[in-house]
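Customer escalation, tier 2.

The customer says the design service returned an amino acid string that "doesn't look like it belongs to this structure." They asked us to rerun it and document both sides in this ticket. The original structure tokens are below, unchanged.
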């Protein structure tokens, strides 16, 4: 069985903004989830991102027997290829206040130089491990760019400095084949975001995988079995707790 997390937005981004992350912790725990992903973009009040606010949220997560992931929408690299050092340092500080296992950023404008020494200085002594996720934009969702990133880290003597969050639906969003991405990047993957996508262009949206969709078992057969899987698709708004239990059980076993 593989550990499963529930991303807070699965309970509806609007609902989390309105009621806060804590409101959904019991549902996540009772569904059998091992972890809970906090989304920075869903905080409404400044106090929520203060060290005190994050520590309180982290304590509430731990009290339910869950571990935390901290997701931030900022990018690791600026558009000109420079390391986004201030954003990385701020994200790490917030993740550590939360007590998170991982801090997750987007890739951004990586142009071939990993700047591993600078990453190592910023991440040294931090509790949370840095993961970079493939996003929905072309610059964040290119298989070749991720292959080049990990190759550059190896060349700079820091192969283990950064891990990967592999988002199945985002590969579809950016026009890449998820199965090809899995074959190319599996050894770097430490966390898997699970969702499908429907629609086209501006009308594309995240959706729950169909139970008989062969893509997900095929991808899970390539990615590391120990990599936890996150529910990032919308849960049934009519019965979110019940749907969460079903989906956690399915993802843990598939």
């Amino acid at each position: 069985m593989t550990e499963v997390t529930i991303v807070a937005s699965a309970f509806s981004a609007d609902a989390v903004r309105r009621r806060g992350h804590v409101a959904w912790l019991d549902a996540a725990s009772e569904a059998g989830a091992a972890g809970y992903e906090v989304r920075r973009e869903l905080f409404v009040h400044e106090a929520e991102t203060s060290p005190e606010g994050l520590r309180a949220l982290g304590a509430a997560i731990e009290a339910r027997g869950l571990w935390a992931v901290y997701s931030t929408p900022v990018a690791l690299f600026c558009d000109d290829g420079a390391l986004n050092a201030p954003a990385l340092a701020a994200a790490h500080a917030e993740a550590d206040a939360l007590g998170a296992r991982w801090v997750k950023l987007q890739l951004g404008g990586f142009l071939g130089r990993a700047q591993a020494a600078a990453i190592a200085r910023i991440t040294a002594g931090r509790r949370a491990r840095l993961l970079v996720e493939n996003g929905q934009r072309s610059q964040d969702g290119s298989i070749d760019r991720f292959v080049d990133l990990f190759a550059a880290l190896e060349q700079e003597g820091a192969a283990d400095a950064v891990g990967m969050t592999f988002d199945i639906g985002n590969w579809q969003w950016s026009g890449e084949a998820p199965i090809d991405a899995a074959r190319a990047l599996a050894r770097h993957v430490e966390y898997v975001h699970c969702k499908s996508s429907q629609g086209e262009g501006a009308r594309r949206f995240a959706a729950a995988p169909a139970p008989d969709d062969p893509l997900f078992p095929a991808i899970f057969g390539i990615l590391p079995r120990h990599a936890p899987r996150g529910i990032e698709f919308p849960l049934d708004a009519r019965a979110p707790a019940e749907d969460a239990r079903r989906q956690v059980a399915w993802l843990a076993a598939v």
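Tier 2 assessment: The sequence is consistent with the input. The chain has a mean pLDDT of 94. Residues 62 and 183 are 35 Å apart (CA to CA). Sent an explanation to the customer and offered a walkthrough call.
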